[in-house]
Structure formats: structure tokens, C-alpha cells
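--- STAGE predict ---
source: upstream dedup step, 1 unique chain passed
mode: sequence only
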Amino acid sequence: MAKVLEKAGGFLLEPKLPLNDRGEYAFGAGLFLTALWAGFVLLLFFAPFSIWLYAGLLLVTLVVLARSPESGVVGLIVTTMLFESFFTLQETVVGEQSYKFYLIDALLILTFGAYLFGERFKGFKLNKADWAVLGLDALLAVYFVASFALPGVDVALAFSAFKTYAFYSVLYFLVRRLLARPNGLLALERAFMAGGFGILFFLVFGLLAGQGLWVGATPLSTAGSRILAPAHAFYALFPLLLVLTKPVAPGAPAWWPRLKMALAWLWTFGIVFSLARHLWLVLAAQMAMLWRFLPGLRRHLTAYGRWPLALGLVGLVAILMLTFSTPALVQNSTLGEGVGSVLERAKSLFSSDDVSINWRKTLWAEGWQNLIDRPLFGLGLGRELNFQLSATNFTVPVRELHNSVFALLVQTGLVGGAVFGWLLWRLFRPVKWHLRRAVVPAVALTGVVLASLFGTYFEANFLIVFFWISAAWLASARIPYPVTSIP
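--- STAGE serialize ---
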């Protein structure tokens, strides 16, 4: 079985790399779990929720996790990267009653239980970053309990906020233990790569259809269509980081470096044409960090950026020339429409009439006013903002301020902000910026935090899980990894 799994998954990052049985089985079993849970999600597009089929899925998952608890982490990551909210927000239906016990919750709890029974936490010593995570969870628990006694609090909303913020931090400790095992880092990297390969399907679909799959959840404030959903574009940042920083293994085929560069360009294309402006900023910031802290990569990064920039300029000139000569041809072409959409979105960053930007400014102004009124402890969980805009009354939960760090600050005040700042400090402070194994997860976590400043990243479970994954990756960067890791 080890040989089969090596052939099935070995090409993803380091061809012909020797693996031990445990690391190999974790990735292979994780892909098997992905196939099971993905099949169940796909079935729900065509048939109603079956509690009996769901019970069978849980039973098979338990059998797999009993052999390899780490495979649950791999399966959760890949399935989330493929199906985003269709996996993480699918409720459990019993009869005619639905419960907000999501599919990702079940897989996470089963994986945590398998870790416990498999003694994966045996000998685990908490570092300062781990204590900071537990401190933030404890503070959020206090705020949730307090919500029962405070007037004007929506307890259901408070529970939802507490669950999203604190419950999914369990994944942080699961990833920490995964990375402490032989070849655990390789399993995590391959999970990102497997999800990245799956995202290519959505990119091709968007190109052929002229509009990406599942883009309706994030409507545009400007003209145009997204080729890739913003969530998938966000996920693509992780495999993109790996192919740009992962060294070519000895004995790899001659075509492998060219394939890695082609993949980097494809994922970059998807990020750009997702029309998610904040992800453009994140991508630029991450490339700047790699350029600054990993001088040895600068030649590689130049090669990565040279051709897309050259082709982009040539394409832009061609589009402009065709616009003046044959405007109908450009307007009716997918490429012309896509380039026009990108230019329109870029221009809107400096426009005072953009609805999305103005909405965020209004929310942030309201949040700031409430923070000034209650600076120390904040408003608490489960609160809503009531304000008027253009003669229309709006009610918006505080957790949906489209700036997750600021939303956390408004809800928990300077106390919560200090604890969250302490967590980031404990994660970033020990980073040795000359070590590639530390810089890559630091860049990944920086990207998540930057993206959270412009959206509801900590409030959506299919996004916050990648904050905790990145945090665990960075917290484990000081582990003396075996040869299979990034040197």
C-alpha cells in the first residue's frame, strides 16, 4: 500500500522523495476521506439530506481515523478548499428539523477524538503561542457566558460568534501535533497542493462559462464577472506560496520546475480575475515579503513575475487597440470582458462612488463610535449595530464589519485586542527571518491577517480555519523537521 500511495501522491511536491509509512498513509487516507466527504456534498446538490447515509459516512470516517488520526486534518483542508461553504455550512438534517451542526464540525470532532484515543497529545508541551490561543479562547468563553446576563444581546448570535472564533481553534492544536510527527509538514503541504489542483477545475470552468462557479455569494460593486470565487482565490494563495518557495528535489524530472511555474501563473491568474481587490493587495504584500526576507529566491520570483507582466502589458495594448478598431469584438469576448472588469475594479479603488468601499467606511465609522463609547471591554458578543444610510435603516451584526480584527476589537474592547495582539506577538516574535521554513508560514499567516482587514474572515468558518492552520504552521516552524521539509 505504501508504494501505491507514493505513486498516487508523490508527484504533488517532491517527486521520488522517500517517505515513511506514517506520513504517506496520512496523506493517502486524507485524500480518501476527501473523496468520501466530497461525494456526500455533491450528492446534496441532487438529493435531500439522508441521516442514514450521513451515519454511514461518519462510521467509515471513524475507521479511517482509527488508523491515522492525522488524515482527518488532510481531509478537512482539501474538502474545504474544494467546496468552501457547501461543506463547512451544510447543516445536519433530522426529519424535517435542521441543526447548525455542520459537516466540518463533525469531521473536526471525530479527528480530535481520534487524536485523544490515539495518544497524539502524549508528551505535548504547550509553548507561549499555544497558551496565547488558550487565553483568547478563555476570554471569548467569558464573553459568551456574560451574554446571558446582558440586556439587548442575541444569545444565538453570541453563540455563533463564540463557536466561530473559539471552537475552530481546535484545528490549531491538531495541526501542531501533525507537524510534530515524521513527514507531518509534507502531509500539510500536499494537502494545500491537492486543494490547489482542485481549484484549477473551478478556474477552467470560469474561463469556459465566462463566470466562475459559486460567485453569487459575493456580488460585485462594479461591472463584470468573477472568473473564480473569492474563497477559492484566497485558498490558491497557499499552494502558490509552496510552488514559489519549495526547492526542486534531487532526481525530479526536468519538466517539474516548468510545471511549478505554470501552476504559479495559473493560480495568480485566478486570484487576479476573482476581482477580489483585497487579495491583490495580499498577493503583492506576500511577494514583497518573500523578496525581502529570502534573497535567494529573488531570481526565481523575477522569473515568476516577468512573463505575466510582459503578457499582461501586451494583452492590454492589444485590447486597447481592438477597442478602438473593433469594439464589438472586444465587448463580446470573454478575455476583453475579463480585462475590462479587472481595470474597472482597479480604478474603483480610487473612486469615491464605489458602493462596496463606501459601505465598509460606514460600518467602520459606526464600529469606531461604539468602540469609543465602550473602549475597555467592548460591546460583547451577540450585538448589532443600528444606523441610517441614505434615508434607509440598517441593522448589521457587529461581527460583520468587514474587518475581522476591528470587529473582534469592537466586541471585546482593548482587553480582547490585547489578548489577540499577544497571540500574534507570540507567533511572529520567535521567527528567524533568514530561515525559509519560518518565513513561508509567516508570509501565509500575514496574508490571512491582511485579508481579514477587508472582509469577514474570522466570522466565516471556511475562512477562519486557515487562520488557525497558518498559525499552527508558524508556531511549529522551529521544530527541527526531517529532510522532507523546506530547508
